[in-house]
Automatic annotation (TrEMBL):
Residues 7-225 form the Alanine racemase N-terminal domain. GO terms for cellular component: cytosol. Signal peptide: none annotated. It comes from the Bacteria. The keyword Isomerase applies. This is Alanine racemase. Keywords: Isomerase, Pyridoxal phosphate. GO terms for molecular function: alanine racemase activity; pyridoxal phosphate binding. CDD domains: PLPDE_III_AR_like_1. Its cofactor is pyridoxal 5'-phosphate. It comes from Salinivirga cyanobacteriivorans.
Length: 356
């Protein structure tokens, strides 16, 4: 049976590394937990690290966090949907916003619940996902900051997630200048300039982060320990706090080239035949995990002698080479995952979640 394993020691080590880094630079931060897909035991592990602020894009996950520890500050990290307004005010202390219509609904609901709902206004800085256009931002802020039971606690941006636009000192300086402009124009304090995510952490570590950026929202680096710019390990962090294990359920020497008329497989792909492989054989294994659980492009065996050969809905085929392999049926194959790979596995009800 396939399972994913959370390494508690690695998670703790990485959190302490991040906390020391941010404390040294007077930066506040929240841990993004959407990768954990609301898994209660894993959420508890994160909260037990001493996290003070948790960010997620699913309101059901924020509700679980509040049930675990009501003192943890919760942040809803995408523009709220109209039909979720009541739950967002109930379970999210802060939400990221881009529409005055939506903020007005939050204001009305916050009055009904006798709460002050905090918001961070997101600015479009070129990645073309969420964000108020820069030329409209001052007018937008003026319209919003007087809404009752709404407190603007920050401005922010998101980079690299949609178009792959990388963070740069120039873009983050622009973001911090908008905070200065608001404070000068409206005599209002804006505590957070939230321009930091996992992809901008390398800028901080290299001393390239503009001084105005004082808030980070990050998750991937905590769990994987990698530099998202060059995909290499971050010095001082541990990699693969989450690891996937899949059981070998068949192991047979088979031809490399398929036999018969070829069409598309279940994933819409057609096999490419190398004439040099005709007549050759290799040891092929089947793993008890498939496309239903994970895209094989997002996993890599730890063993360099094991290659992913293909996948169907419930099984992944691995190539173990032409020599008699050291594996046998029933063995576990250890697999590292990208962020999207881990997200797929965590969202699968068929993969057991363990803690070591």
């Amino acid at each position: 049976m396939a399972f994913i394993e959370l390494d508690r020691e690695k998670l703790h080590h990485n959190y302490q590394f991040l906390k020391r880094t941010f404390d040294k630079n007077n930066i506040e931060f929240g841990i993004v937990t959407k990768l954990l897909c609301g898994h209660n035991a894993y959420l508890k592990e994160v909260i037990n690290l001493g996290v003070e602020q948790v960010c997620d894009s699913r309101i059901s996950n924020l509700k679980k966090i509040k049930n675990i520890n009501s003192e943890v500050e919760t942040v809803y990290i995408k523009p709220p949907a109209k039909r979720s307004i009541k739950s967002i005010v109930a379970y999210a202390d802060i939400s990221l916003n881009t529409e005055s219509y939506t903020i007005n609904l939050l204001s009305e609901e916050a009055q009904r619940q006798d709460k002050v709902h905090k918001i961070i206004i997101m600015i479009e800085m070129g990645d073309l996902r969420e964000g108020v256009m820069r030329e409209d931002f001052i007018d937008f802020y003026e319209k919003v900051f007087e809404m009752p039971n709404i407190e603007v606690v920050g401005i922010g941006t998101n980079l690299s997630c949609m178009s792959g636009v990388m963070p740069s000192p120039d873009k983050l300086i622009q973001l911090s200048l908008y905070e200065q402009l608001i404070e000068a124009r409206f005599s209002r304090n804006v505590p957070y300039v939230s321009g930091g995510t996992s992809v901008t952490l390398p800028m901080l570590l290299q001393g390239m982060l503009p001084p105005g950026i004082n808030h980070y929202r990050l998750g991937e680096t905590l769990y994987l320990g990698n530099n998202l710019i060059n995909d290499k390990p971050i010095k001082g962090m541990k990699q693969n706090a989450l690891t996937l294990y899949a059981e070998l359920i068949e192991l047979t020497e088979k031809p490399i080239v398929p036999e018969g008329d070829l069409g598309e497989n279940v994933d819409g792909q057609k096999a490419e035949i190398d004439p040099k492989d005709v007549g050759k054989t290799a040891y092929r294994g089947l793993l008890d995990i498939g496309l239903l659980d994970i895209d094989p492009r997002h996993i890599e065996p730890f063993d360099p002698d094991v290659e992913i050969a293909g996948a169907s809905s419930d099984m992944i085929v691995i190539d173990l080479g032409s020599e008699q392999p050291r594996y046998k049926v029933g063995d576990l194959i250890r697999l590292r995952m990208t962020y999207m790979g881990a997200l797929g596995v965590m969202n699968s009800n068929y993969i057991e979640k363990r803690i070591v």
